Amino acid sequence: MNSDRLIYGDFMDGVEQEVKIYKQIDDLKKFQDTIDGFLDDYNGSVKTQMHLVMFLDACEHVARITRIIRQPLGNAFLLGVGGSGRQSLSRLATYCANYKQFQIEVVKGYSFSNWREDIKRVLMQCGVDNKPTSFIFVDT
Predict the structure, then answer these.
(1) How far apart are CA 57 and CA 44, in angstroms?
(2) In this structure, how many other beta carbons lie within 10 angstroms of the beta carbon of residue 94?
(3) Considering the domain boundaries, does residue 58 fall inside one?
(4) Is 77:90 a contact under the CB 8 Å cutoff?
(5) 3-state secondary structure of 60
(6) What is the per-residue pLDDT across 60-90, written as a single tens digit (0 to 9) for each?
(7) For the chain, how many structural domains are there in total?
(8) Residue 80 is part of which domain span?
(9) Is the separation of the CB atoms in 54 and 39 below 8 Å?
(10) Is residue 1 situated within a structural domain?
(11) Nearest partner of 73 among 119, 135, 24, 7, judged by Cα
(12) Per residue in 5-32, pLDDT tens?
């Protein structure tokens, strides 16, 4: 057995998830290329593309966010100045983790009943349907 591999798999409500190996990265260029590949795949699968430059610090943030959300009951509260990439990197990390993304769009006329319906929908998606979901909630 490889010493870098985990002895146990990830389980979510009795359903085995894909085992992810957690180890130190030796080749930073390969790591950056991998994250760039995820970004290219993401941009190929959505209508609104993200045109990001994935420098090493941004790649490290994506890896951190991915690691956090893949943990049981994993959640993160990201702080930073506007335009620092919190939302974009969270979207990319959600894609890397192969999670569904849920984000509420607050527009003119959005009411408390709309809020309740949106929350009901995301809870049904992740609780009842058992789909791993990232709920991205922005302050704007």
Answers:
(1) 23
(2) 24
(3) yes
(4) no
(5) helix
(6) 999 999 999 999 889 999 998 888 999 999 9
(7) 1
(8) 11-99
(9) yes
(10) no
(11) 135
(12) 333 344 344 444 566 677 788 999 999 9
C-alpha to C-alpha distances, 99 to 7, 115, 134, nearest whole angstrom: 24, 22, 6
| 38-62 as b/e: b if 16+ CB within 10 A | bbeebeeeeeeeeebebeeebbbbb
- Whether 140 is in a domain gets the answer no
- Is there a domain that residue 44 lies in? yes
Which one-letter amino acid corresponds to residue 88? S
Strand partners, 16: 11
Contact 62/89 with Cβ under 8 angstroms?
Answer: yes
Number of residues assigned to the chain: 140
Report the predicted TM-score, pTM, of the whole model to 2 decimal places: 0.80
